[in-house]
Amino acid sequence: MPFREINSKMVEATVLPGQRLFSQRGAMLAYKGDVAFTPNIQGGQGGLASMLGRRIANEATPLITVEGSGTVLFGHCGHHIQVITLAGDTLYVEADRLLAFDGTLQQGTMFMGSQGGVMGMVRGQVTGQGLFTTTLKGQGAVAVMAHGGVIEVPITPQRPVHVDPQAYVAHHGDVRNKLSTALGWRDMVGRGSGEAFQLELSGSGAVYVQASEEKL
């Protein structure tokens, strides 16, 4: 794993010859060694077709390619950082939450309707996250940003997890997600609990939840 958590808001990445990683533009804080930072006009991996797909899906974010030999400190706007290690599965996360990730991971985009049908699409609209999300698949590590601390909540077939859509950060594993509602007459007259919508995740995997309902 190339990322080491220095504290809750900074990670250190080890850059080795012949390997590369991607980071959000402007996230480099300091570095040691012979390291090069190159603007990535494709916004990640996959060539021109993937770049166009990310732009159409509004999942394109300015990235830089980091190569060479040394160590780099990353952080951005004082956001909390969570390092997530993937062992062959897929991480689902909004592009603007990506701080840095292994160049070995396969980057793509996913239509929200394919994980949760119509309610998956409704979820994207209600949360303001749109109809697509970014996917990273393979063996490697990802550093994501969040407001407040982040906890990892396991998802098991016997016990789905319900998350406030605004507190959702990312999830991985064999998981389906949909928006569930608990609207009642109190909500209609403005006397509800304020928790009318929850994101329901079921299957096997984990979801990452931030300690805030504030978007980045």
Automatic annotation (TrEMBL):
Signal peptide: none annotated. InterPro entries: AIM24 (IPR002838), AIM24_sf (IPR036983), Trp_RNA-bd_attenuator-like_dom (IPR016031). SUPFAM superfamilies: TRAP-like. PANTHER family: ALTERED INHERITANCE OF MITOCHONDRIA PROTEIN 24, MITOCHONDRIAL (PTHR38074:SF1). This is AIM24 family protein. It comes from Streptomyces durmitorensis.
